[in-house]
Design brief:
CATH class: Alpha Beta
CATH topology: Glycerol-3-phosphate (1)-acyltransferase
Strand content: 15-25%
CATH architecture: 3-Layer(aba) Sandwich
Number of helices: 7
Oligomer: single chain
Number of domains: 1
Strand order of the largest sheet: 1-7-6-2-5-3-4
Helix content: 25-40%
Structural class: alpha/beta
Distance between the termini: 20 Å
Number of strands: 7
Radius of gyration: 17 Å
Order of helices and strands: HHEEHEHEHEHEEH
CATH superfamily: Glycerol-3-phosphate (1)-acyltransferase
């Protein structure tokens, strides 16, 4: 189910960082499906424990599922997601509810404060929170749009490390597509008040760090792109 701010306060210590039996099964299923359809690879090493913010580029619907398939089971990972985008398709709604990984945010701003409280609560209990800081889907390889300053606010407010992860291959999907998650070096959030200037500057720094680990893109040659409809399944 989705995670709400009011629910975080009632969780026993460290529960948000642990993975229960059903989410373990759901994640194993995601890993199996993606392993059959695609060639997945994780480059680099992630921190062995939380809390931390995972900041990634956003190329398509498969981004969060790829990370779920590649990341260790613990500490548990959650994602900040647009409420409509994560619930408008029945199978995606079922999958996300089964995984229990989304902190929903409405684009009209009505749930932003609750989402921030939920994220801070999850991080305080040792979890990992992933955020696609562009705030939109690019649908293009090797392109990185400007970051929303909210990622800077969350990092500074929580005082947790930030890990950049560059995703490659998810803009166009087909059978056998190589999907890569490249992990950059963690960086510490500055110990300052989360003012507009400070959060904007740190968001820009995170943008630069993520862009620095992007790999050059070349369109595969001689590849038979079977099941390209996977790209637009959502």
């Amino acid at each position: 189910m989705a995670v709400r701010a009011g629910e975080i306060a009632t969780l026993p210590a460290d529960r948000s960082a642990r993975v229960g039996a059903w989410p373990r099964f759901a994640r194993a299923l995601v890993r199996l499906v993606f392993g059959v359809l695609f060639r997945m690879r994780l480059e680099g090493e992630l921190p062995r424990s939380g809390p931390y913010l995972l900041v990634a580029n956003h190329q398509g619907w498969a981004d969060a599922f790829l990370l779920i398939a590649l990341l260790p089971l613990e500490p548990r990972v959650y994602f900040i997601g647009d409420r409509r985008a994560t619930s408008h398709v029945w199978w995606k709604r079922i999958a996300i509810r089964s995984l229990g990984i989304v902190v929903p945010v409405a684009r009209d701003g009505t749930s932003e404060r609750g989402a921030v409280e939920a994220v801070l609560g999850l991080l305080a209990q040792g979890a990992v929170v992933g955020i696609f800081a562009e705030g939109r889907v690019s649908h293009a390889e090797a392109q990185l749009g400007p970051f929303q300053r909210g990622v800077g606010y969350l990092a500074i407010k929580a005082g947790v490390p930030v890990v950049p992860v560059w995703l490659r291959g998810t803009a166009e999907l087909y059978i056998g597509r190589e999907l890569v998650a490249r992990v950059g070096a963690p960086c510490a959030a500055p110990a300052v008040e989360p003012t507009k200037q400070a959060t904007t500057e740190f968001a820009a720094e995170l943008h630069a760090r993520l862009g620095a680990i992007a790999t050059p893109w070349a369109e595969p040659v001689g590849v038979r792109k079977r099941w390209r409809w996977l790209t637009d399944i959502l």
